[in-house]
Task: inverse folding
C-alpha cells in the first residue's frame, strides 16, 4: 500500500508532528507500507506573523493536484489543517476521494494566546475541516472525549511511540551542573507555559532545550536558567538522559511526544494534571501530576528511573504505525463513508 500524507509541518521544523511523521514512515516501511509526503518543499512561503521563526507554505491548487496524481497513492491522510491540508482536502472532495485526518495541535488555544479570537470560533473551523474525513485520528482517550463533546465525528485512536535505542539512559552525559537537574524540552513559545517552570523555587538547576519566539524574553527574565538551544536526535537524547526530572508545564498539548522520550531516557515526568500528561502517566509510577508544579517536580525526584524506562519499552513506533495503517485500510476496503461536500 502507498499512502500520501499531506502536512504543513515539515523539516527543518523540529516538533512533535514532524518527529511523529518521520518515525511513522520508517516503521511503516518495515510493515510493507510506503509513505510519501506532500510537504511545503517546493512551494513559496511567508513567515508567520505571530511566529516569524516558522514559515507558512502557499501551495497552488494546480500544483497540489499534480503532486497527488504523480504520487498515485492508494490512500490519503491529511496531517495538518494549514494551507496544504486545506488544498488536499479540497482536491479529495472534488474528486470524491475518501481521506483521513489527524488532530495533533490545539490551534484554538494557541491562536487565542496570541490574538483576540475566541476559541469556539476556531473550533468551529476545525470541526468543519475534519467533518469530511473518514476518520479523524487522535493520540489520547481524553482528547477523543473532549473532541466528541465538541461534536467532532468519526474519531479514531492513533497512539504515539518512542525510539528506545536513541533515547536511552546509557547515553547520558555529564552536564556539569548542580543537581538535581530539572529539564524541559520543546518550542519556547507562550502556549508551552515555560514561565510556570522557570518561575519555580527549585534546588539545583533548570535547563531548557529548544528555541522559539519567547526565548529572548525568558532568557532575560530568568538568567539563572540554562538555555541550551535547539538539539535533535542523539545529542538531545544525551542531554535528556542527564536530567533528574523532566518538567512539562504545557496545559495545551494534545500529547507531548517529549514525555515518552524522557521516560525512555529513564527520566520521570513532572506536569500539571491535564490532557497529555494525564494520558501518558495515568496510574503508572512514572511521574507526578499536580496543580502545584513545584510539588510535582520535587515528587518526581522520588520516582524510579528503571520504572520509567520499563514503561517506555512498551510504547513502540511499530505499534503506532500498525494503528495508523489500520485506519488507512478503511479507505481501501469499501467500508468507509464518502466524504461530505463542505
Result:
Amino acid at each position: 500500500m502507498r499512502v500520501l500524507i499531506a502536512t504543513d509541518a515539515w523539516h527543518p521544523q523540529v516538533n512533535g508532528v514532524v518527529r511523529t511523521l518521520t518515525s511513522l514512515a520508517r516503521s511503516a516501511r518495515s510493515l510493507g507500507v510506503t509513505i510519501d509526503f506532500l510537504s511545503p518543499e517546493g512551494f513559496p512561503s511567508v513567515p508567520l506573523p505571530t511566529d516569524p521563526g516558522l514559515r507558512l507554505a502557499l501551495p497552488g491548487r494546480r500544483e497540489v493536484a499534480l503532486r497527488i496524481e504523480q504520487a498515485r497513492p492508494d490512500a490519503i491522510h491529511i496531517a495538518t489543517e494549514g494551507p496544504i491540508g486545506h488544498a488536499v482536502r479540497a482536491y479529495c472532495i472534488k474528486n470524491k476521494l475518501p481521506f483521513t485526518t489527524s488532530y495533533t495541535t490545539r490551534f484554538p488555544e494557541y491562536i487565542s494566546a496570541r490574538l483576540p479570537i475566541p476559541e469556539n470560533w476556531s473550533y468551529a473551523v476545525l470541526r468543519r475541516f475534519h467533518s469530511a474525513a473518514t476518520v479523524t485520528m487522535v493520540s489520547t482517550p481524553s482528547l477523543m472525549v473532549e473532541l466528541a463533546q465538541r461534536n467532532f465525528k468519526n474519531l479514531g485512536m492513533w497512539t504515539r511511540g518512542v525510539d528506545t535505542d536513541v533515547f536511552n539512559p546509557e547515553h547520558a552525559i555529564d552536564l556539569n551542573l548542580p543537581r538535581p537537574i530539572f529539564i524541559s524540552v520543546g518550542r519556547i513559545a507562550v502556549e508551552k507555559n515555560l514561565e510556570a517552570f522557570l518561575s519555580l523555587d527549585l534546588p539545583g538547576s533548570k535547563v531548557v532545550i529548544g528555541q522559539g519566539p519567547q526565548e529572548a524574553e525568558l532568557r532575560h527574565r530568568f538568567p539563572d536558567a540554562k538555555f541550551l538551544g535547539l538539539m535533535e536526535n542523539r545529542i538531545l537524547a544525551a542531554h535528556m538522559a542527564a536530567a533528574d526530572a523532566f518538567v512539562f508545564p504545557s496545559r495545551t498539548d494534545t500529547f507531548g511526544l517529549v514525555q515518552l522520550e524522557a521516560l525512555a531516557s529513564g527520566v520521570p515526568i513532572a506536569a500539571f494534571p491535564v490532557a497529555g500528561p494525564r494520558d501518558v502517566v495515568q496510574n503508572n509510577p512514572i511521574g507526578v501530576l499536580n496543580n502545584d508544579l513545584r510539588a510535582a517536580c520535587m515528587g518526581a525526584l522520588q520516582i524510579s528511573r528503571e520504572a520509567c524506562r520499563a514503561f517506555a519499552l512498551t510504547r513502540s513506533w511499530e505499534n503506532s504505525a500498525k494503528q495508523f495503517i489500520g485506519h488507512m485500510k478503511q479507505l481501501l476496503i469499501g467500508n468507509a463513508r464518502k466524504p461530505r461536500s463542505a
Notes: The chain has two domains: 2-161+317-329, 169-312. The chain is about 40% helix and 15% strand. Residues 334-342 have pLDDT under 50 and may be disordered.
